[in-house]
Amino acid sequence: GQNIDQPTEMTATEGAIVQINCTYQTSGFNGLFWYQQQAGEAPTFLSYNVLDGLEEKGRFSSFLSRSKGYSYLLLKELQMKDSASYLCAVRDGNYQLIWGAGTKLIIKP
Amino acid sequence: DAGVIQSPRHEVTEMGQEVTLRCKPISGHDYLFWYRQTMMRGLELLIYFNNNVPIDDSGMPEDRFSAKMPNASFSTLKIQPSEPRDSAVYFCASSLAVAGGPSYEQYFGPGTRLTVT
Fold first, then answer.
1. Do A42 and B91 touch (CB under 8 A)?
2. Structural contact between residues A45 and B105, judged by C-beta atoms closer than 8 angstroms
3. What per-residue confidence (pLDDT) applies to B97?
4. Which residue in B5, B48, B106 has the most chain A C-beta atoms within 10 A of its own C-beta, making it the best mutation to test that interface?
5. Alpha carbon of B20 to those of B76, B87, B108: distances in Å?
6. DSSP A61-77
7. How confident is the model at residue B7 (pLDDT cuts 50, 70, 90)?
């Protein structure tokens, strides 16, 4: 079957760096996505990786290794507003998006 | 652009009643997706449309659920009869088409919080 694994919850300190990991097993691969979901709101797009390597966008970076079925989202200079759930999703060979359960990130002062 | 619009934002109904959720995608988007999100199961894709045609409804839980897209600017998700286990947040999302498939970025509506008592 197809599955996406990511930690359920993580805690970090304001101003620090946190890495949220995601591993996947899918039938085919057409890209990996990270979405942010604030409590009570809809998911919003953060990043997209289809080739191996690191994609940087401001304080957020996303890494992909297709051979390892692995990605991470790196958040730098954490702010309180970064407290949210972070969803990893993979588009499989049929262009279906398979979603992880999300990682709830708690930022402490 | 107004973004994806969903109505109602909240719905409370009794078991056995029919529920209809509505969605207006972003103008010009080719794909429309219906999702359900619960604490237990996370975000689940129910069905998606391309150019108003249902492409994959394998995520629809059972025959009580049906979805339609009569035109490019409107879609409905209907539950009849509703059950307490249908309580969840239902999201509609839309995206452009790229290279024969949906674009990597989906735009989500604010969701409909459904409570079935």
1. yes
2. yes
3. 82
4. B106
5. 7, 13, 18
6. EEEEETTTTEEEEEE-S
7. very high
Tell the residue number behind the tokens 């940087």, with chain if given: A56
Q: For residue A45, list chain B residues with Cβ-Cβ distance below 8 A.
A: 104-107
Closest CA to B112 of B10, B35, B2: B10
Q: Which long-range contacts (CB under 8 A, 24 or more apart) does A52-59 make?
A: none
- Could you give the CA distance from residue A65 to residue A71 in angstroms, rounded to a whole number? 6
pLDDT at B59 over 70: yes
Q: Is A102 on the interface with B (CB under 8 A)?
A: yes
Q: How close B44 comes to chain A (CA, Å)?
A: 7
Q: State pLDDT tens for residues A46-71.
A: 999 999 999 999 999 999 999 999 99
The whole-chain average pLDDT of chain B stands at 93
Does the beta-carbon distance from B42 to A100 stay under 8 Å?
Answer: yes
Question: pLDDT at position B22, please?
Answer: 98
B-side interface with A, Cβ within 8 Å? Answer: 42-45, 56, 91, 101-102, 104-111
Contacts with A108 (C-beta within 8 Å, 6 or more apart), sequence order? A11, A12, A13, A14
